[in-house]
Write a structure and sequence with these properties.
The protein has 340 residues and is an alpha/beta fold. The protein is 41% helix and 15% strand. The protein has 15 helices and ten strands. It has a five-stranded mixed β-sheet with strand order 2-1-3-10-4, with helices on both faces. A five-stranded mixed β-sheet has the order 7-6-8-5-9. The longest helix is centred in the C-terminal third of the chain and has 20 residues. It is globular.
């Protein structure tokens, strides 16, 4: 947008015109960005929706469209094909898979310091410790069997004979006191409590050695090389959005999530946020000193070694090629965390 010449007289008019021109130029200069989520809108996506809804992305010169995922949507593929600018990764299993296949993508931030995957069991049935789950019947989905369960076998002695198919319904688990079920700390425990009438034991796998990052921000190597400032602004604005969602007024983010996914309830939003805080899903570990989104080479190397040992990822890869630290560990937003 060009700013027209004006015959207006006086310094006040000229100053007002200058401010108008600056505002118009800033709006015109906003970079359009597409961010593909890995599922439909959820509380676990809260900081991203917050940054879009409360103007944080706009303040960083970005016009961000969040593209929901879902069972029939492959946003990871759209990222590598150049149809999206950024992608919300799951955990590092996918990141290492891309490295194996020589797909030119990079993790540029890790919003979740802990993967929220859990196993749930019935209380008072001899399944009250993580080790005791080795005797439980396990309701697990095929993708979890191919990845997380292989780690459970290699490091904790779980066996194939425990497996039962999981169809994303809690009913079989609720009906079988000798079973355990997969889930996320932020949702399935609430589902079981409401449907089954009991509070399940909740075992966060991250607390037992599954040390993957989760809810990563990924992009293509060519975008990192050609427009690092765009990547920096998107990462930093997302981090600010997450601090606001965790510790500030998250009402706009929650409203945006519910608008994108009407199935989300206020109860689930509150439960998920409380679980993320209580279990340190987002703001724990290195994030406490380096800021949300923090990543370290040690964590990547550790999880890569675990996945090689479990047979999930092939050996001989260089895990440092799967990420860059150029846009994180800068303590962005740390001042927003409440003082102890």
């Amino acid at each position: 947008m060009s700013c027209p010449r004006s015959p207006a007289r006086g310094l006040a008019a000229l100053a007002g015109l200058a401010l108008f021109c600056l505002g118009a130029s800033a709006a015109a200069a906003a970079d359009r960005v597409t961010f593909g989520a890995n599922w439909v809108a959820q509380p676990e996506h809260g900081g991203f929706y917050q940054a879009a809804a409360d103007g944080t992305y706009a303040r960083y010169g970005l016009d961000v469209t969040i593209v929901p995922g879902g069972p029939q949507v492959n946003n990871r593929l759209l990222l590598s094909a150049g149809k999206l600018d950024f992608y919300m990764g799951g955990n590092l299993v996918q990141t290492f898979s891309a490295l194996e296949q020589d797909i030119p993508t990079l993790a540029v931030a890790a919003i979740f310091q802990k993967d929220p995957q859990v196993l749930l069991s019935h209380p008072g049935q001899g399944l009250d410790t993580f080790e005791s789950l080795r005797k439980a019947r396990l309701f697990l989905s095929k993708p979890i069997v191919a990845s997380t369960f292989q780690w459970l076998k290699s490091e904790w002695g779980f066996t194939d004979g425990q497996l039962r198919p999981y169809a994303f319904s809690a009913a079989p688990f609720i009906a079988d006191p000798g079973s355990a079920q997969q889930g996320y700390a932020t949702s399935e425990p609430l589902t079981v409590e409401k449907q089954g009438g009991f509070k399940p034991n909740v075992f966060l796998l991250a607390d037992y050695g599954f040390d993957s990052y989760a809810t990563t921000i990924e992009t293509r190597r060519d975008l990192v090389d050609s427009n690092p400032d765009l990547v920096r602004r998107f990462v930093e604005a997302s981090i600010v959005g997450w601090y606001t969602y965790l510790y500030g007024d998250r009402s706009k983010g929650d409203a945006a999530i519910k608008a994108a996914n009407p199935d989300i309830t206020d109860e689930l939003l509150a439960y998920s946020l409380a679980a993320m805080k209580a279990r340190g899903i987002v703001d724990s570990g290195d994030a406490l000193t380096l800021g949300i989104g923090a990543m370290t080479p040690e964590r990547f190397a550790s999880f890569y070694a675990r996945m090689v040992k479990a047979g999930v990822t092939r050996s001989g890869l260089d895990p440092s090629r799967a990420y860059t630290l150029a846009f994180v560990n800068r303590k962005v937003g740390l001042e927003s965390r409440p003082k102890p």
